[in-house]
TrEMBL record:
Organism: Candidatus Terrybacteria bacterium RIFCSPLOWO2_01_FULL_40_23
PANTHER family documented for this protein: NODULATION PROTEIN J (PTHR43229:SF2)
Annotated GO MF terms: ABC-type transporter activity
Similarity section: Belongs to the ABC-2 integral membrane protein family.
Pfam family, one: ABC2_membrane
Name by which UniProt lists this protein: Transport permease protein
């Protein structure tokens, strides 16, 4: 019982430190929120004028809204793990690695810290919905929040798994940029996943983020007056069948669990 209490307390300390670091960096908070705002209001509305969707009555900027949430989570969730490289650079990581704290607890604290800060940065985006014609409801927000947290945990785990054994801060930033771009572009966050070339369609199917994006999109469009068939036309398919939301949720949960496992193992080898 005492060991479990120490384990949980260790996770809490690492998590709380990540939260403090986030709140003290005011510029990170302000500049971070401007990114989705510019994408929605400028890019989204600009493309809406020239691009039509297969769903009548839905503008591209409305389609883009849940995609922006996922896109921002990808960048903030993965890049939150940069703090590990900063800790290594300033010697703090060495101190906690030789301390009695379990390395699994360190990994989980970093993952939960990154997931919390990225989720906090994303939540204000929800209130931009009315600006692009997305009607917010209490039910929608309550469904979106756990979906956002789940995706944030998966993405933060990817970042922690990569940076746990890396030495260079610059190399970490380049690798994250290299990984983030295909994850975004192959997820359906920016463009619909229909009528794609065979090879590109295959890549979107094996990208677990595609199913997370579709969960967000189904929640956003749930309270619309659109028929279910219209919404499903934007969803990923396997063997010609639309992937149901509970199957998508299972895929994301399994992906998150696998990434947490790899992140923990990476810290044990650090």
């Amino acid at each position: 019982m005492e060991k479990m209490s120490h384990f949980i307390n260790s996770i809490y300390i690492i998590w709380y430190r990540e939260l403090l670091r986030f709140w003290r960096n005011k510029m990170r908070v302000l500049t971070g929120f401007s990114f989705p705002l510019l994408w929605l209001l400028i890019f989204g509305n600009g493309i809406s004028a020239s691009l039509s969707l297969p769903i009548p009555g839905v503008k591209f900027v409305q389609f883009l809204f849940p995609g922006i949430i996922a896109q921002y989570l990808i960048f903030t969730g993965m890049f939150s793990a940069i703090s590990i490289l900063q800790d290594r650079e300033f010697g703090f990581l060495k101190e906690i690695l030789v301390s009695p704290i379990s390395r699994t607890a360190i990994a989980l604290g970093k993952i939960l810290g990154g997931a919390t800060t990225s989720s906090l940065q994303v939540l204000p985006i929800l209130f931009l919905g009315p600006l692009v014609g997305v009607n917010l409801t209490v039910k929608m927000i309550l469904l979106l929040i756990p979906a956002i947290i789940l995706l944030a945990i998966a993405l933060s785990s990817i970042g922690v798994a990569i940076t746990a054994r890396m030495k260079s801060l610059d190399a970490g930033q380049y690798i994250f940029q290299f990984l983030a771009f295909p994850l975004v572009m192959l997820s359906g966050a920016v463009f619909p996943l229909h009528n794609l070339p065979v090879w590109l369609n295959l890549l979107t199917k094996i990208n677990p983020i595609s199913y997370a994006v579709d969960i967000l999109r189904k929640i956003v469009f749930e309270n619309s007056n659109l028929p279910p068939q219209a919404i499903e036309s934007l969803s990923p398919t396997i063997n010609g069948h639309v992937v149901a939301i509970h199957h998508e949720l299972l895929i994301v949960v399994l992906f998150s669990s696998v990434m947490i496992f790899f992140a923990s193992r990476a810290f044990h080898k650090a």
